[in-house]
Amino acid sequence: MADAGRLYPSVILHGGDVEARQESVIALARKLLCEEPSTCAGGCGHCRRLHWPGESDLFHPDFQVLERDLKTATSVEATKNFLRGAQVAPFEARGQVFVVADADSLSDEAANALLKTLEEPHLTSPRHFFLLAPSQFDLLPTLRSRSLTVFLGAAGRPDADRVSPVAEAFGASLVSFRESNSSIDLLAAAAALLTSGSFDDVRAGEPWSIAAAAVRQALDRPGAGQARPLLALAEELLEARRFRLRGITARRIVEGLVVRHLASA
Fold it and tell me: Would you tell me which CATH number, out of the four given (1.10.645.10, 3.60.21.10, 3.40.50.300, 2.40.40.10), belongs to the domain 10-151?
């Protein structure tokens, strides 16, 4: 669609990992802004200057990236400043590309400001917006309804060497809980999951993925209990990042999920 000039003005790239989303949007930007898209192999004056911010000293004025400016959100002020570039004609290329790096972190006000721009298509030159997010469902329904959604596949599996010790500690505590029915053992199981990595970055998905993988691995441990509550716990751990974005501590989230799914199972 990009090659044929028929790509929708707003595209949501979701799934994969951060690197996959960034690489995909750079590849699409090179197709959209290239001087000779049918013959260029990435060496034209436009393609050579298209890089993710910070990865090169080169810069293209018609490729703009909005990155999260606050700890938990992309502010409306930063979004409005970013959108000012969409009110002018391209500086050098035949079109413009605007990328929202963490579209799932847009505040409601910021998302509505972006929505207003999406509803006012540029009449004189192509203007494309790419909204990057782990899941399309992290975005407002109004943004999803005005965008083409492209799923980049599941994120890579967590490193088995990092999952195994967490699974071992979690499984041992879980077996002890089945034998003793003591809340101390249940809290120990939650504490084991909290060793999955650093939860300080509220947007980090890796520690939650490792914790979920550790719970699934514990399914194979004799005495761990029924599979259904463990699978439900693993599924909720994968989605638990949304609670961190609300300022809830990782310990409170994990302990709450463990107790909810396993205390009476």
Answer: 3.40.50.300
